[in-house]
Structures are given as structure tokens and as C-alpha cells.
């Protein structure tokens, strides 16, 4: 904690209505806030100021150590800012909470011991601020709350009030009670209120006489109750993600663009899971397993986040850039099942193998049957560079060799002849090497009627 300097008149003691903090050293090479509440303070400043040039000037002055001792009292912070050869008195005003507002805050805080513990640890967790907002108390400033006043006579935030605000963010990082003092309540007075109110609420209330009704009466009343309302329908889309593009610099290694993308994807995935949960047939739908990191990386890459994010997703999933692009193409044709067909080559069980051979046997006349080379669940025509793959759910996936790699060529179908037609058509005109979209299911040309009693040719290598 920085040293506090007393002002004239004996201010600065614990529990007083004013605290004065000695001038801070220059802030070269560092941001002005690392705590989320300090960054919220800066956002209120940066979203209010109309002149970005004045904000830059304020950051320059604050970094240079031009801000003198900062005085904090209810509704106002004050400091002298040295700008070249002149000194200016800068004030930032924020209307303090009313007595009723503080009563609501104290009532809320004493009901949750974790809130008091967090404040004593010099922390201001988000749920404390959220609970206070539900009680009608805004602990953090919003747009337009921080009003400037400076002897340079600027009508908006100038470089001097901006410099003061940036230094205030550094104070808030160390002690959120500084913010509560500006809202109108010194630390000692607030802690005393919490202690008194907590002791009052801990007294046991007199026991109320037990009141109830007979079981038969309660059961009869149940028939008179109205039915439960229908479940709310989920939104059609997740909405816009957060805007993280502020003047406050991000922490090292943090990319605001990627965070915005991840937040949007998380919201969309939550919307999808909600829609699945409230669907009419949700009772018979199995619970989805938590996706593996390698699978979830493909889902995110399929949203086209950009080259830098795709590179990081490829590295996180243990794939090369080319392998990730291939996985995305499979994902767009069929999600996680398509990805497993692409990357896993497990032998078929006896029943699955029998079903696959029966389907192939029924798809062509013996004389017109393609000369497949079979291996596990994959049947290949090497001369044509096409392949069909059988999945345990009974569907066939078309594949085509592109740039020396087997590439998904279409969505799954139940007919191996139709899958072969998709593979031969190159997925309905999808350009080579580019992620495709699932084409319409074509009708397999020249399919011959089934001839019973025929066996498949022996599997090749």
C-alpha cells in the first residue's frame, strides 16, 4: 500500500472522510490497472471522453509522474498535475450514494459472508458488484458518471483530469475501499455498519407457530392449480459478443480479438445446448459427452476465426495447418461423427462388417460391381482416386484423393452406390483443397436391381 500523507486539518486518519495518497512513481512500461474493477474505472473514463487526444495526453502525464498527491473524499478526487511549466488543479466528480443506497448495500453484504471476506482481502469480486446492482447500488462508474473539472477551463475531460483518473486506477488496484470512499463511505464506517447489522441479524427470531393443512386437502387443491407455463424458447442466435476494444492496453499474451471470438462461440454453443434441452423430444436424447480438446479445436476452427487463431488451434490440437483444414472440411459435412471417420481407422466388428458387405452386395449387379480394394471399413478404387468409408451407424461417407490425401467429398448416405457417386462427382463441384459445404444428395446413376445370393469379391490390401 502506498504511503498516505495527511492534509491540513488532521485529515488522513483511519475512518476519516478524506484520504490523501502520496504522488506515485512514474509508470513506465506498465498498464494503469490490472484488477477488473480498476479496468472498469478506466472504461468509464475512456467511453465518456470525447477527445481521444486528451486521453493520450493524460496517459503521457501519468506515466511521467506528473500527478501529485491524490486526495479522495466522498464524491470527488483531486490532484495537482504538472504540465510543462504550469500546474493545474484537476478534479473528477462522481455523485456519492445516498444513505438509503448504503443501507441497501449493507443489508445485501451481511447476508453473504463471502462479500465481507473479499472486501477485507482488498478484493472486489464480480458477484459482489452484481449483487449490489440487483439491490439498486452501482459500485462502479458507468458512461457519463465521471465528470471533470480543471483550472485549465476545459469543458470536457482534459489531459489533466485524464491523468488523475489513470492514477486513480492504480490506487483502486491496491485497495477497492478507495472506490467505496469516493462513493461516500470510509472504510472504518463501512466495516462498523457491517458489524452492527450482522450482529442484529444473527439474533434468533421468535419461533412462529407451525401452520399447515391436512394431506387430503393439499392433494385436492393440486387439481385446482393451473398447469405449468411452457418452457421459453431459446433465441434464434446468440447475439453480439462483448466489445473489448478499449484504450486500456490488454495484459501480455491476451488478444482481445480472440477473446471476443471465443466469447461469441461459447454463447452460440450455450444457445445450441439450450435449444436441444427444451426440444419436444429432449427426454429421449442422450446427454452429449464433453468434447475432447482436439475435437473442440476443430469446431472452433470451422467458425473461420482467422489465420492467427487457426494456427493456435492447430497447435493446441496437435495437428498441422493442412490437417486442421482437412478436419474442418469433415466437420462441415457431419460434425464430430465425420471427424471420427476421417481420423480413426478402427476395424469393424463382425456385425458391422456383415452389414457393410450386405449393403455393397445389394448395390450393384455382379457384372457391374466396381473392383474395390477393401481394408477395414474403407473401400477404395485406386485408379479413380475415390473411396467410400463405412461408419458403425450404417452410413457411408464419400472420399476423394486430393493433393495426395483422402479428403471428405460429401455428407453421409445410406447407400454405398450413392456415396460412390458423390465421391466421383467431387462433392458436387467443391474446389480441390477448399473446405466444402454439404451438397444435395444425388441419385446414384445406373444402379442395377439387386440380384440375391451374390457374394462380394475378396478384400484387397
Describe this structure as you would to a colleague.
The chain has 16 helices and ten strands. It has helices at 36-48, 52-63, 99-110, 113-120, 126-134, 159-174, 177-182, 187-202, 215-222, 256-277, 293-301, 307-317, 321-343, 350-363, 416-424, 426-429, and strands at 19-21, 70-73, 76-83, 86-93, 147-150, 373-375, 378-381, 386-390, 396-402, 405-408. Helix 1 runs antiparallel to helix 6, helix 2 packs across helix 6 and helix 3 (99-110) packs across helix 8 (187-202). It has 461 residues and is of the alpha+beta class. It has a five-stranded antiparallel β-sheet. Strands 6-7-8-9-10 form a five-stranded antiparallel β-sheet. A hairpin with a 2-residue loop joins strand 3 (76-83) and strand 4.
Indicate the radius of gyration in whole angstroms.
34 Å
What summary fits the major beta sheet?
Answer: 5 strands, antiparallel
Strand order of the largest sheet: 1-2-3-4-5
Please, what is the average pLDDT?
A: 78
Q: Could you spell the SSE succession in H and E letters?
A: EHHEEEHHHEHHHHHHHHHEEEEEHH
List the helices and strands and how they pair.
Elements lengths: L18 E3 L14 H13 L3 H12 L6 E4 L2 E8 L2 E8 L5 H12 L2 H8 L5 H9 L12 E4 L8 H16 L2 H6 L4 H16 L12 H8 L33 H22 L15 H9 L5 H11 L3 H23 L6 H14 L9 E3 L2 E4 L4 E5 L5 E7 L2 E4 L7 H9 L1 H4 L32
Helix pairs in contact: 1-6, 2-6, 3-8, 11-12, 11-13
Amino acid at each position: 500500500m502506498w504511503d498516505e500523507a495527511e492534509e491540513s486539518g488532521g485529515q488522513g486518519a483511519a475512518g476519516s472522510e478524506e484520504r490523501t495518497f502520496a504522488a506515485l512513481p512514474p509508470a513506465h512500461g506498465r498498464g494503469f490497472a490490472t484488477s477488473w474493477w480498476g479496468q472498469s474505472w478506466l472504461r468509464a473514463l475512456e467511453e465518456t471522453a470525447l477527445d481521444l487526444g486528451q486521453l493520450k495526453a493524460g496517459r503521457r502525464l501519468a506515466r511521467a509522474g506528473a500527478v501529485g498527491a491524490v486526495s479522495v473524499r466522498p464524491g470527488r478526487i483531486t490532484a495537482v498535475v504538472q504540465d510543462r511549466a504550469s500546474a493545474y488543479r484537476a478534479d473528477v466528480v462522481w455523485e456519492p450514494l445516498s444513505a438509503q443506497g448504503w443501507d441497501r448495500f449493507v443489508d445485501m453484504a451481511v447476508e453473504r459472508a463471502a462479500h465481507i471476506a473479499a472486501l477485507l482481502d482488498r478484493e472486489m469480486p464480480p458477484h459482489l458488484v452484481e449483487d449490489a446492482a440487483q439491490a439498486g447500488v452501482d459500485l462502479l462508474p458507468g458512461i457519463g458518471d465521471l465528470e471533470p473539472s480543471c483550472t485549465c477551463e476545459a469543458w470536457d475531460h482534459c489531459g489533466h483530469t485524464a491523468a488523475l483518473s489513470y492514477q486513480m486506477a492504480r490506487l483502486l488496484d491496491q485497495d477497492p475501499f478507495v472506490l467505496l470512499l469516493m462513493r461516500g463511505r470510509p472504510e472504518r464506517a463501512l466495516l462498523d455498519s457491517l458489524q452492527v447489522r450482522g450482529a442484529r441479524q444473527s439474533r434468533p427470531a421468535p419461533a412462529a407457530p407451525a401452520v399447515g393443512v391436512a394431506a387430503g386437502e393439499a392433494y385436492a387443491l393440486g387439481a385446482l392449480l393451473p398447469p405449468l407455463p411452457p418452457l421459453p424458447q431459446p433465441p434464434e442466435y446468440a447475439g453480439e459478443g462483448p466489445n473489448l476494444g478499449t484504450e486500456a492496453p490488454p495484459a501480455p499474451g491476451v488478444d482481445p480479438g480472440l477473446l471476443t471470438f471465443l466469447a461469441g462461440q461459447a454463447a452460440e454453443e450455450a444457445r445450441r445446448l439450450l435449444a436441444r434441452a427444451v426440444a419436444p423430444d429432449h427426454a429421449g436424447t442422450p446427454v452429449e459427452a464433453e468434447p475432447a480438446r482436439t475435437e473442440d479445436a476443430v469446431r472452433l476452427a470451422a467458425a473461420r476465426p482467422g489465420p492467427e487463431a487457426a494456427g493456435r488451434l492447430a497447435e493446441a490440437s496437435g495437428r498441422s495447418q493442412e490437417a486442421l483444414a482437412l478436419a474442418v472440411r469433415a466437420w462441415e459435412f457431419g460434425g464430430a461423427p465425420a471427424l471420427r471417420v476421417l481420423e480413426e481407422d478402427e476395424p469393424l466388428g463382425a456385425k458391422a462388417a456383415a452389414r457393410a458387405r450386405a449393403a455393397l452386395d445389394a448395390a450393384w449387379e455382379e457384372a457391374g460391381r466396381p473392383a474395390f480394394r477393401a481394408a477395414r471399413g474403407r473401400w477404395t478404387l485406386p485408379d479413380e482416386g475415390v473411396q467410400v468409408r463405412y461408419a458403425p451407424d450404417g452410413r457411408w461417407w464419400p472420399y476423394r484423393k486430393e493433393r495426395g490425401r483422402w479428403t471428405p467429398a460429401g455428407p453421409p448416405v445410406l447407400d454405398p452406390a450413392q456415396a460412390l457417386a458423390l465421391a466421383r462427382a467431387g462433392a458436387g463441384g467443391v474446389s480441390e483443397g477448399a473446405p466444402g459445404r454439404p451438397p444435395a444428395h444425388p441419385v446414384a446413376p445406373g444402379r442395377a436391381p439387386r440380384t440375391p445370393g451374390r457374394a462380394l469379391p475378396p478384400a484387397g490390401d
